[in-house]
Write a structure and sequence with these properties.
The two termini are 32 Å apart. This protein has 196 residues and is mostly beta strands. It is 6% helix and 52% strand. It contains 2 helices and 15 strands.
């Protein structure tokens, strides 16, 4: 991961930095959006940018008031996403305008399913509302996750790989999903619902 996106609020303005460890410049699209926890867009802007090699630079800077209108800070988040023109890793980050204690996250429900794969299982997760800090676990130490502790955007499936040698029935039984705004560990396999 050569490129990272990072948002900072300072002096009433929101700045989006893109940090690159690459040795060459990278062209791509930077999207900055303000969303509520149901996925409704409050503000969105996309621009073509050239990320300079081995540098950290501001590529977006606007007053917070212009972005959030009259919405409550505790009920929205800012998402920055940089997509390289040549493909590959997308740098994204969700930023909150309050502390986690002050955020008014909705109580979320997560649907998931597992699929057998070489060396383990793919797990697809989806939620109708924003999920903060999803964390998956199974018993034992002989396992690994392609990603863990991640956000789930409303109605946007997230697919991760879990490396383990246990049976699928045992995997489905053991898998637990926790999150900041999920009231209790989710253990039951549910159908992935189609989104419109």
């Amino acid at each position: 991961r050569y490129v990272l996106a990072s948002q900072i609020e300072k002096n009433g303005k929101l700045s989006v930095y893109i940090v690159s460890d690459s040795l060459i410049d990278c062209n791509g699209k930077l999207s900055v959006s303000v969303l509520n926890f149901n996925g409704d867009t409050i503000f969105s802007e996309t621009q073509n940018v050239t990320v300079k090699a081995n540098a950290s630079k501001i590529y977006f800077n606007k007053p917070i008031a212009e972005l959030i209108s009259n919405k409550k800070r505790s009920e929205i988040f800012v998402r920055a996403e940089f997509v390289p023109q040549q493909g590959g890793y997308t740098a994204d980050n969700n930023y909150f305008l309050c502390t986690m204690k002050e955020m008014n996250f909705p109580q979320a429900e997560v649907d998931w399913k597992s699929e057998k794969a070489d060396g383990g299982y793919y797990v697809t997760l989806i939620s109708k509302t924003f999920v903060r800090g999803a964390y998956l676990s199974i018993t034992g130490v002989d396992n690994s996750f392609s990603d863990n502790y991640f956000d789930i955007l409303p109605n946007q499936p997230v697919k991760i790989f879990v490396r383990t040698n246990i049976s699928q029935s045992e995997f489905d039984k053991q898998l637990q999903i926790r999150a900041f705004n999920v009231p209790a560990p989710i253990r039951k396999t549910l159908p992935i619902k189609e989104t419109k």
